[in-house]
Amino acid sequence: MKNAFIAKTSGRTVLESILVMIFISIILFIAIDRYASYAKGIKETLLRVELSNLRTSINYYAAAYKRLPESLKALVEEGSASAKKDIEGTDYNIIISGKYVEGMSVDAGGYPLDPFGARFGYDPKTGRVRSGSIGYEKW
User: Fold this and answer.
1) What is each CA distance from 118 to 37, 62, 92, 131, 132, in whole angstroms?
2) In whole angstroms, what is the distance from residue 67 CA to residue 73 CA?
3) Tens-place pLDDT, residues 63-99
């Protein structure tokens, strides 16, 4: 007696095609779910780093200008000043070395965006900066 699957010379049946599609769908679902959770973890780590950088930049700005910036846009636009001394260590020059915040994504208005695509929240009275994304406002 011959096996029906081995002896068959015609194409696939509808049942075989449906089973293959179900199997491929399950594999894709698992892969997409793992990718989404992996990407979310990377964005959360990046958010921690960017919040730390912004808070440090606000402190540098406050030390240089003796006041808090009016908005986070000021950190993106204004240059940071630093002191550089000569070889003997006696003569100091103030140089503009770059912006307080560089390499961050900004929106059309020039305000920095968090990794999830929302503007960072900023209170100019206290200098407190936070994420603008839902679920991360208290970070």
Assistant:
1) 19, 25, 41, 8, 5
2) 15
3) 888 899 999 998 888 877 666 666 665 676 666 677 8
Buried b (16+ CB within 10 A) or exposed e, 95-126: eeeebbbeebeeeeeebbbbbbeebbebeeee
Res. 129: pLDDT tops 70: yes
How far, in Å, are 53, 56, 112 from residue 60 at the CA level? 10, 6, 17
Two tokens, residue 137: 């406002």
Instruction: Round the CA-based radius of gyration of the chain to a whole number and report it.
Output: 28
pTM above 0.85, yes or no: no
Bridge partner residues of 80 (DSSP) = 98
Site of tokens 């206290």: 126
> In whole angstroms, what is the distance from residue 129 CA to residue 121 CA?
6
